[in-house]
Amino acid sequence: MINIKNVKYYPELRKVAELADEIWHECFVDIISPGQIDYMVEKFQSLGAMTNQIENQSYLYFAVCDDEDLCGYIAVKPEEDDRFFLSKLYLRSDKRGRGIASLMMNYVFDTARKAGKKSVYLTVNKYNSHAVEVYKKIGYKLIDSVVTDIGGGYVMDDYIFSYAL
Ligand SMILES: CC(C)(COP(=O)(O)OP(=O)(O)OC[C@H]1O[C@@H](n2cnc3c(N)ncnc32)[C@H](O)[C@@H]1OP(=O)(O)O)[C@@H](O)C(=O)NCCC(=O)NCCS
């Protein structure tokens, strides 16, 4: 049985950071360089980075567990306007293809509606074709693309998708 719960603190957040490290090094291996994966994990998904996002940038993190097995996570951020930013949606590889992603996405939509938002948007690497197909299937629409300089000599080359609630 899948359960999704808000996590804010050590030690739960550390477990999410460890899972993020594992998933990012697996799923981006054909898309971005090993150096960039290490850089992005440290910058965005280390325990310190996530704690800063939660405490200072209004991010919410959610752990996704299959019974007791922590197998995925979500990060979201309500914007000042009527948009809800889906920042992270990650599932360990052995749990993919089972409908868990749709449960996770419905949880995001419910959370956004409860916050009074009108749309959910996300960025996705242009070459992350599986995620792009999943988002399109769910009903997201491509609205833009963006290249973001993240320092260290690296950029993120992303599509922006939006879903009207
Ligand atoms: C993105 C991710 C969360 C999706 O989870 P998943 O388990 O692979 O997704 P599913 O197989 O459950 O697919 C979700 C839906 O998309 C559909 N889908 C999957 N692949 C598809 C394809 N190629 N074409 C059309 N529809 C597709 C599925 O049928 C399913 O729809 P349904 O629930 O109505 O049956 C997961 O693959 C993941 O964590 N990937 C690595 C991390 C990542 O890339 N995260 C996104 C970063 S932006």
Characteristic terms for this protein:
alpha+beta; 5 helices; about 40% helix; seven-stranded mixed β-sheet; binds coenzyme A; Aminopeptidase; about 35% strand; single chain; about 160 residues
Give the gist of this structure:
By secondary structure, this protein is of the alpha+beta class. The protein has helices at 12-27, 34-45, 47-56, 100-114, 129-138; strands spanning 2-7, 60-66, 69-78, 83-91, 119-125, 141-151, 154-164.
Major sheet: arrangement of strands: 1-2-3-4-5-7-6
List the secondary-structure elements in sequence, H or E: EHHHEEEHEHEE
Helix content: 25-40%
Using the CA coordinates, give the radius of gyration: 15 Å
Q: Overall mean pLDDT score?
A: 97
Assigned CATH architecture: 3-Layer(aba) Sandwich
